[in-house]
Each structure stands twice: as C-alpha cells, then as structure tokens.
C-alpha cells in the first residue's frame, strides 16, 4: 500500500494515488494471492511516480495518449517482457476503476498491449529426472516424482497435507494462486515411492513433506533439496521446470489440451502456450497421426 496522506481540501483534486491504494485494498479483500498483490503494488508505483513527474494528479487527466507515452518511457529501461508486466497491472487497475464507476471512459481500452515475443520455457528432461532420483533419499525421490506427476507449483506442493492424498492417487488441491480447488492425480509408481517415504517418518506433522526435524518443508528448504541433488547428479534445472515437463510430456502422450488445462489449473489456454515447447519431432509426429493423404 502507498498510504498517501493528503490535505482534506485537496482530496478531490489529488485522487490518483488514493484510487491505486483503494485498488490494492480491494484486491486484498478479494483474496488475491500475496504474490499478485505484490506484483500490482510494484508495477503501479512507477506509474504513480511518472504521473507526478508530469503533474498528473487526477485519474480523469489520464488519456490513452498519456498511457502510450508512459509505455514508451518504460521501453527506455525495460525489456519487452518487463514493459508488458507494467501494462498488465495498469490494465487491471483501470478496469477496476471502470467497474467502480470512478471514470466515465476507460483510457486503456484504446491502448494496444505492447508486443512481446515469449520464448518457450524449457522443461527438465526425463533423463535428468532419473539422474536426480539416483542420488536422492526416499523423501527427495517422492518430491521429484510428485512434482513431475502432478504438474503442481512449488507452493501448491508445500501446502499439501497427508490427508489430501487419497488411496487411489487423487490429490485435492485447495491452496493455489487461483484460489480454486482442483483435483490432480499420481500414478502407481509415484504412490509406491510416496508410501515408502511416509513409512520412514516418525513425526506427527500433518504436512505431506517435512524436514528432518519433522516440520513442514518450506520453499527455501525445497530449493535447497534441488540445489544439493543437482550438484550431486551433475544436472542444472529449476523447480518450475518439473511443471513444464509435466505439461509437455502429457501432451506428447496424447492427453487433450482441455484436460491438461484443467489439471494445471489454468483459466485459459493462452497461459499454457509457453509451456508447450514443441520440437520438430512433435510436429512430425502430429503430421504422421493426422495426415489426410495417409487416409486416402
């Protein structure tokens, strides 16, 4: 929050900062994730500073042309991907202001989103997963296989409790960025490794994955596990690459994209585009399966 203090006589004149603060408060009340709130706060603060430098204090003073000039200003110091993040936060703010009837016309509706070429995100290879498994203990094996088999994000994994995993492999996800519960699944092999890990535990913690002291595993602890096992296995990857590997391998194994979207918890298909890194092998295989000439 910006916590902007103003004189009561100027409250109608200087309202932009107040409205941004109100937007952040409303977003928090709506239950948006802390990371999303932080994102909005960090991306809207430079906009407010730019407005102040241009003697813009009222939301009614902001025009489509002003927003375009702000984008050009951002392009001087940020890459295309960075500029696009500022635009997304600004768009969310102005659509909120329109919904709240704080403005008569939404200026950002006439501003085209800055173009950005998003490169495909590389998944961890299955060979590298096997290398990690070879140097891991029971817990770390279960962690790596669980990430790969469910496509969960690190935060979702760490929030799981033992009771969330059913005997048939269904896993109920209640804590996610979207705040929408969903069900994912683990296969027999992952269940077998998970049971082997749980048999080694002697704690009373409800968490699915714990530290050696019996406390719920933290994000920093999870990163340290991966760092240590990468060093031992001689591989280099990231936690999120397991989610990418889940997505790309499920698609290659014939899972339809709509089911995959539901398993990953995405609101729309556009979010998945960067996960689906298709190679010439993928497109050749797709042509072999669907060629109309082969069916003549």
What distinguishing features does this structure have?
296 residues, mainly alpha, DNA polymerase, domain 1, 2 domains, two-stranded antiparallel ribbon, 3% strand, disordered N terminus
Task: Please explain how this structure is put together.
It is a single chain. With 296 residues, the protein is an all-alpha fold. It folds into 2 domains: 8-110, DNA polymerase, domain 1 (Orthogonal Bundle), CATH 1.10.150.130; 126-286, hpI Integrase, Chain A, CATH 1.10.443.10. Helix content is 52%, strand content 3%. It is built from 12 helices and 2 strands. It has helices at residues 16-29, 34-53, 64-75, 80-99, 126-134, 138-150, 154-159, 188-199, 219-233, 240-252, 257-264, 280-290; strands spanning 170-173, 182-185. A two-stranded antiparallel sheet has the order 1-2. A hairpin with an 8-residue loop joins strand 1 (170-173) and strand 2 (182-185). Helix 1 (16-29) runs antiparallel to helix 2 (34-53) and helix 6 (138-150) crosses helix 10 (240-252). The longest helix is centred in the first third of the chain and has 20 residues, at 34-53. The radius of gyration is 24 Å and the shape is globular. The termini are far apart. The relative contact order is 0.09. Residues 1-14 have low confidence and may be disordered.
